[in-house]
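Hi R.,

As promised on Friday, here is the backbone we talked about, encoded as structure tokens. Could you run it through your design pipeline when you get a chance and send me back a sequence?
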């Protein structure tokens, strides 16, 4: 998986790439996928949250998918020619926005490292782009189980 990072903390860049690669392997997704993750401050994420979700407050992570994979099946890149970069052959799953201000507060609140919280938020956004959700309790359990399995495989523990 190709991971494009904007304004990401340098010390965590390799972690995000590892999380993405392990997630693709565990979930059985093709390697010809890409994602863009942008790291923003509280004001920027509040503006995005207000504009796109109608919620006028900062949040930790937002995801904007380019495809609908709500069935969480294995993605067939050939079905999305307009979303696939013709130069690389990679299908762009979408964009993830992560607020490091909120991530720092949550890491302290939950009693774990900023690395763990940042990796979790990146993975949470990636799982949303892959069709996972947490509106219904059963879906939330499946999403948490997938996240825990992936983070554990990456040796990123609480």
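Update: got your reply. Pasting your designed sequence below so it's all in one thread:
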């Amino acid at each position: 998986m190709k991971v494009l990072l904007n304004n990401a903390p340098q010390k965590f860049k390799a972690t995000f790439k590892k999380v993405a690669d392990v997630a693709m392997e565990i979930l059985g997704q093709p390697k010809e996928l890409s994602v863009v993750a942008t790291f923003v401050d509280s004001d920027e994420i509040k503006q995005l949250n207000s504009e796109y979700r109608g919620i006028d407050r900062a949040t930790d992570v937002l995801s904007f998918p380019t495809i609908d994979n709500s069935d969480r099946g294995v993605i067939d890149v050939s079905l999305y020619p307009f979303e696939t970069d013709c130069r690389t052959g990679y299908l762009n799953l979408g964009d993830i926005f992560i607020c490091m201000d909120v991530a720092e507060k949550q890491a302290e609140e939950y009693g774990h490292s900023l690395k763990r919280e940042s990796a979790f938020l990146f993975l949470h956004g990636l799982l949303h782009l892959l069709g996972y959700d947490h509106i219904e309790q059963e879906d939330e359990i499946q999403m948490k189980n997938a996240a825990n399995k992936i983070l554990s495989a990456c040796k990123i523990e609480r």
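One thing I noticed while checking it: The chain has one domain: 2-153.

Thanks again,
M.
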